[in-house]
Every structure is written in C-alpha cells, then in structure tokens.
Amino acid sequence: MKIAIAGCGIAGAAVGYLLASQGHAVTIYEQSAQCGPVGAGILIQPIGQAVLKSLGIYEEIHQKSARLNWIEARKHTGKRLIQLEYQRLGSDLYGLGVHRGLLFSSLFSLARQAGALIQENACITGYQVSQSGVSLELESKDSAEVFDFILATDGARSRLRKVSGIKHHGAEYKYGALWTTGACTAVQDRLFQVVEGTQKLAGLLPIGNGECSFFWGLTAAQFKKFQQQGLDVWKKEVLQLCPESEEIVTDIDSFENLTFTTYRTMSMQTWWSDRILFLGDAAHPTSPHLGQGANLALEDVWVFSECLKQAVDFQSACNHYEKLRKKKIRFYQQITGWLTPFFQSEGVVKGWGRDLFLPVMSQTPILREQMLKTLCGFKTGWFSSNFQ
C-alpha cells in the first residue's frame, strides 16, 4: 500500500520504519525545513524499552543513556514526597533517561534505511478522500500523490485533527515549562523533582554522558515577568528551590538558552475515520507529569504495525488497533489529568492534599505496586495490567 505519514517526530519515524519494512511505499511529510528532534530529555519506561528492543536499537540507546533506578519528589523543605524504586516491582526494571536527539536520530536512520521517503518543508494542511484513495493538501499548494491512507503523527497541535471531522475536546494547560540540557553530576541515578506548593516545580532528568535535562514549571505570564526582571532574578529563585541544578543553571547566560513549552490534553471520540488514523500525541496528548508520552507513542506505532500486518485492509486494522489500545490510553489520560493539578495549578488546597497523602500512598505496599505499574507503563486499565 501507499502510505503518507504527517509529521516526522519519534512516532512518525518509528512507524515509517515499521511499515516500510513490511514492504509498503511510505512517504513522511515534515513541515520543518529539516527533520530533527524537538525537546530535551525523555524518560523511556520499561514498556517503551520493549518496543526499542523489538526495533533493534535498544542496546545503542541504552549505552548512551542514563539508567534510572528510582524517581524522587521532594518538598522545598527537604521532606520527601515520594520515592518509587523500580526494583520493588521487578529486579530487572528501570527507567532510561534518553536525549531526545539520540532516539530520534536512531529512528530516523532506520526509516531511511528501510526505504521511507522524506519530504521536508512540506506541511499537510488537509486532505480529500475519494474512491481511489486520499490526496493531500499542502501549505505550499503543490500537488501531492494519491495515497491509500494517512497516518497523522503531527503532534499535540495536530492540524489534521482539526480538519478530520472527528469529534474531540480538550484544553490547554495553564502551566508549561522551561527546558534546557547541560552538565550535571548532582543527580545521576533517578528522576528528581522538587516542589513548593503547586506553583513551583523544578526537576532534573539524567540523560547520560554526565548530562541532565532541567525543567522549571511556570505559566507564560510568569515567564514574561522573569524576562522583564532579568535572568539573575530567575536563577536566584531556581537555586533556592533546587540547589542540585546549580551546575546547569550557572551556565545559562540568556533566556534564549531555554525552551518554553506548553502542554495540552485532548480526547478524540475515535482515532480514525475514512483513510486516516491518529497516533501518539496527535491522538492523545497529555501533560508530561507521568513521563508517558514517548512510551505511549512507541507502543501505538508498534501495535498498529502488527494490526496492519494481520489485517485485510486499513479499516479492519484500525478497528483492531482501537480495540487493543482504547482502554489503556483512556486510563493514562484520566490518571494524568487527575494528577497534573496536584503538581501545577493555582491555589493551595491541592498542594496540602498532595503533601499529606502522597508519602503515605507511596509507602503502602498495595498502592505502591499500582503506582509502579502505572509508572512502568504496564497498566491497561484501572483494574488491570500486563505485568504478572
């Protein structure tokens, strides 16, 4: 089949490789002038690691990344809120802190080697379905070939989702984050976060080679205020909350060294319609508080490629895919939506509740087990998991 993929990020490159490897004629359309990663570090959980192993790039990624044995969240007073050790669920389990550029480059190389064609500076703004297939509408007004179907992997702000006619609803989170990457030896074996109420959040994610991704949660208005006040005012506030970030923060000499990112949540009534399927963040974007985005995207593309391999046509593949994925995706959307305001929101009540109950939950064996299964990506619903 002839397949068009909208967006060449992690999901787009991965599914491009998988489907080209199956013998399909694949063309990936990327709106940027040059394909490349957006963002800093990502946390690859055990479920995402399983996909990388199936793709044959796990060892390459593992060697250049950071093995994370636990996650820790702490209050500004020094009191620990949560400590979850992967090994409490399984002795061979751990997280993997990965530079997004490393993962993207590996997947992009695979896609090209498998024969996927890459069209850069090509933004798909819409499409037209006919009996013979689906034709793409490009921002440049250039004509495109007719394809059997489109896979939309064009991210949380998917243009194709807006024009698909599929009912969807969601919202933009008020809080986003400033991100950067740099040398950091203070935190090496865990994802580390520190909070003050629900309005201050800083974190460090080791990504290998003595580096960490640093993130600082704030609203667009707060970011604008810091820009007006100056970099030193921001640095002082960061280091008061998270002195472990000093090595990275000291090297920042301009706000241009930081990337401000906002997040949104979105639910679609269905992930597919005639000749188009949405995968990854294009289908189910959430906030990053559970660290599941890249993992769910990798699992999405793997499951769909297997469904297509077994199906007689695109529609039956989509039906099977949605049945397999719906319950799990809905769970992670719901739990992330519930969790996010307890870490980033206005007011104080949610912060008090979090500080009171989270330490108890993470040290209660039956609750800790469920939290770890959720973290690892093993949960398939509120009362089910694929971890034995």
TrEMBL record:
The keyword Hydrolase does not apply. Its EC number is 1.14.13.114. Keywords: Monooxygenase, Oxidoreductase. It is an enzyme of class 1 (oxidoreductase). InterPro entries: FAD-bd, FAD-dep_Monooxygenase_BioMet, FAD/NAD-bd_sf. The keyword rRNA processing does not apply. Residues 2-303 form the FAD-binding domain. One of its GO terms (molecular function) is FAD binding. Pfam families: FAD_binding_3. This is 6-hydroxynicotinate 3-monooxygenase.
